[in-house]
Amino acid sequence: MLTAAERRDLLEVLEGRHVRASTIVTSQLPVDTWHEVIGDPTYADAVLDRLVHNAHRLQLVGESVRKRNAKTIALDEQSER
Hints:
Layout lengths: L3 H14 L16 H5 L2 H12 L12 H16 L1
Helix pairs in contact: 1-3
């Protein structure tokens, strides 16, 4: 959960960029959990309003590259034995 100062800072940055500049946000958290993470419903609504308005959302599916690489490394290590 964000602290009160972190919530204010996040909203201030987004407010300053809203409609004037592009903002790219990446997250491993689904958007439906952001209210809980932000911690204050008023700030969460304001943050999501500024992010979602005119947004292009890309949701990736499938196994993560990190997991796939870990499996490959493990298999390589086994074959070296």
